[in-house]
């Protein structure tokens, strides 16, 4: 029931985001105005991301866990009432049909590859994840080939012929992947290592959210003075410093964790704004919806891959470290539970004698922090690679205040 409900929420969210971005593309034709509009659009996500954990933490402390799903109901009711009156309507006169086969192929490709990653992290490389990888890869190949043949593709693959568009998609995907993957584990660190309540953990996420909002709103001002390549690569450099700080976090390093998260947020934010802006802006107006869908898909896929890929890497690192340091004397079942997750280790420790339980908790905390270090290092490598790619592809893009290149002089004709 939970998975089905989350799937319905995902469908609802996936229809909202491309629609709002497509509206921004059609409403704001001026490049500067569109960049500001996208900054405000992204700031709304970050503000919601700051409010959500606080309200959810309060509700979890006061009510049953399922109450957090009621948070969106008033907002959705307001949207349903006010949206038809306030939102302008832009429609493609010939939108074409929705290809359900493409929808199914994309779902199979993504879910099979994510399942492969998670199973390898849990049980190693066996025939099941190998078969899942082959099935996901085959579905992805068939999906791409089908998009190239359709008159109205689900995702317009031809947009990727533009190097700026492709680099922008990659930059956005990696930024979201790193941000979601790292924040997923910092949230667990706050509650499972530092022992904070859901509300307290939500409060400690405010500094990084505020830093992200600052970076988001600074993007239009920065790109008006500097070329996009400098803003994106400079932001990645700042984010890499934040990730490097996270590699030094220990089992009791709350201040360092928050500081590293703040630096990471303020570095990644401009790149996500400009990446989204360049994706939408590099496509023709009549293909704004397709470009917006690709932008949102890359964001959603980046979030999923951040949790799947970085989560799998962290789980493997946790399991490997704890296997070497787990205290002797645990029953096999208790050891297996502790090796699976940090939460399992903490629950197991509650049923052990005090000394043995404390040893298990200390070893599990150390293993979890080791996993955080590993994903921070992997994220640094990914960001260095994409910063280099962006530096090569985007180096000729001008700042908004740069003068247009002068046209070559036209020689005077010697004949009347």
Fold blueprint:
Layout: H1 2-27, H2 31-62, H3 72-86, H4 100-123, H5 127-149, H6 163-193, H7 198-204, H8 206-225, H9 228-246, H10 254-281, H11 288-325, H12 332-340, H13 342-350, H14 354-393
Could you describe the 3D structure shown?
This protein has 416 residues and is mainly alpha-helical. The chain folds into two domains: 283 residues, Growth Hormone, Chain: A (Up-down Bundle); 55 residues. Helix content is 77%, strand content 0%. Helix 1 packs antiparallel against helix 2 and helix 2 runs antiparallel to helix 8. The longest helix is centred in the C-terminal third of the chain and has 40 residues. It is globular, with a radius of gyration of 24 Å. It starts with a helix and ends in a 23-residue tail after the last helix. The C terminus is likely disordered.
Weakly predicted, low-confidence segments: 401-416
Decide which structural class fits the backbone.
Answer: mainly alpha
Domain count: the total is 2
CATH homologous superfamily label of the largest domain: MFS general substrate transporter like domains
Biggest sheet architecture:
none
Which key phrases capture this entry?
416 residues, 14 helices, single chain, Growth Hormone, Chain: A, mainly alpha
